[in-house]
Task: structure prediction
Amino acid sequence: MEEQTTSPNTASARVQVFSVRAPDRACAERALAEAFAEGAAGAEEDEDGCMLRLYVPASCVGAVQDALRNQVPEVIVGSAEELQERDWSEAWKEGLAPIDVSPRLRIRSSFETSPPAPGQQELVIDPGQAFGTGGHESTALALAALDRLYAEGTGPAHVLDVGAGTGVLALAALRLGAVSAVGFDLDPLAAPACRENALENGLAAGAVWFTGPLEALAPQRRFDAVVANLLRRELEPIFADVAARLDPGAPLVLSGLLDSDAPRVAAWAEAAGLEADGRVEAVDASGVTWVALLWRRPTPARG
Result:
């Protein structure tokens, strides 16, 4: 879990916890609203927003579960378990061990003080309200794909991060050798989080962040690489515009996708004149297969 919506109410005598799986983020938001209306004390959601972990006073568990099953029948409601008493000021740090993307790059939280491997670059990113600290499969896959672009000691100089979240992907590109990065997100919490993380990592000089749509960039602006960690439904309406931002020869890294999304996304990419350049995948704890796809804008043949 990467984003906590509210903290569990530790003042309650007894709190129980159970999971809720939704088919999409809109459905998960409806479920969250119903749960809080019936007395839920807190919730966590994963990075794609479809898996919830609800913290509910024991006296309200039945009402919350009934409301979810009746009002949002698309969700799968797990069994409730007693929440053990914990020091929540420290418990949130669990599961946030450093992420070794490659021998070149590591992502860690500020409270993790273990040293990197020799020659390994670091980014320090703490979890917050904006998405993307590297722990979710979709972000980890995007990082791995991005890292691959710099594996030979060279890589894209000017990178666009579509749906930047915490800015981890753009900042990773800068740490690996990019000269500049532009990141944007529709979430108003994202750009401030990106700026803070850029400052904390000494990368503010090379980064530009903004809140708004892709159209806010100058129409002629092109990049050496574009990375987008978005759900398929978020990517679909902007795909053609995203692909149009690639310079000749530039790679496009697409993550946030399920394995079942790949054929449809491939059709979009081929229609945009892109060439397939690879794929990586990972299976999350619930058994869902996430993929990151690499495409590339062909370089025109010389006459």
